[in-house]
Amino acid sequence: MTAPATAPETDPHTPADAGDLLAHRVAELRRGLAGLGSVVVAFSGGADSALLLAAALRELGGDRVLAATGDSASLSRAERDAARNVTAALGARHTFVTTRELEVTGYRENSRSRCWFCKDELTGRLTALAAREGLAHVATGTNADDLADRFRPGIRAAAARGVVTPLADAGLTKAQVREVSRRWGLPTWDKPASPCLSSRVAYGLPVTRERLARVEDAERALRAALGRARITSRDLRVRDLGDRALVQVDLGATAAVRECADALDAVRAAGFAHVVVDPGGFRSGSLNETTEA
After folding, report:
1. Which of 22, 29, 172, 218 could form a disulfide bond with 238, CB atoms 3.0-4.6 angstroms apart?
2. Which residues span the domain enclosing 253?
3. What is the pTM (predicted TM-score) of this model?
4. What is the pLDDT of residues 268-290, one digit of tens each?
C-alpha cells in the first residue's frame, strides 16, 4: 500500500532527535499498533481517527487494517462523503456499519449519558465486525486530551467493550495529532471537529430523525448563506433548543452573522421558529454549560 503522503525530513515517524517528545510519542504509537497485530479502526473522518488509520496502515499494512464508519441518521451527508474520500486517499479498506442507536430508549431520551448508548451501540457492532473479519482489536481515535474531559461517557462505554485507544495510550494530545498529521500530509490535519448531529440537540429534548434532519438542513443552509455574504467562520453549529435555534460561529463573525438576514432566514426555513446568534461564539460542548447552569 502507498503511504498517504511523502513526509518531510522532520517527519516524526523517523525522528532524527530521539529525545523529542513528539517523536517519542509517535514511536510509542507505532509500538502500540504493532502489538495489536490487526485492527478495525472506528473511523469518523476527523483528524484523530484519520491519523490513527494512517499510522495503522503504515505499521500493519492494508490487509490487517479495516476502517469502519457508523452510519445512522446522526451522521450528516457531508461527513459520510468525507469518510469515503479520506479512506480512499489513504488507500484503506473501508466499510459503513449500520447502527441503530435511535432504537435505544436511553439514546432517544437524550440525557447527558446519550453518548454512552451511542458508543456502546457502535463498538458492539464493530467488535462483531472484527470477529467476522478475523481482526484482533477495535480501536478508536480517542486522544490524551479526551481522557481529561469529564463529559465523555462514550469513552467509558467503549472501554467496557474492550476497545483500545492507541493515540491516548501513546500520550498524543489533540495539538500533537494535528501536528503529526500536518507533517504526514494528511488532508484532515486542520479539519474542524464535527461531532454527530445529535450533539446539537439540547439535553432532554428527544432525539428523532426529523430533529436531526432539521439540524443538518439548517447548518447546510447557513453555510451557503454565509458563503454568499462572504462571511467566514471556521466552526459553525446550529444548536436545537426546541422551537429555537442557537447559531454559533467564530467569535469574530458573530456580529456579521447577527446582521445577515439571509443567514438567519436560512435557519428559520429549515424549521425553527426563532433564531438567536450566540454572542459568546462557538464553543465545543457548550450544551454542557447549559446543563450545569
Report:
1. 218
2. 197-292
3. 0.89
4. 999 999 999 999 999 876 666 55
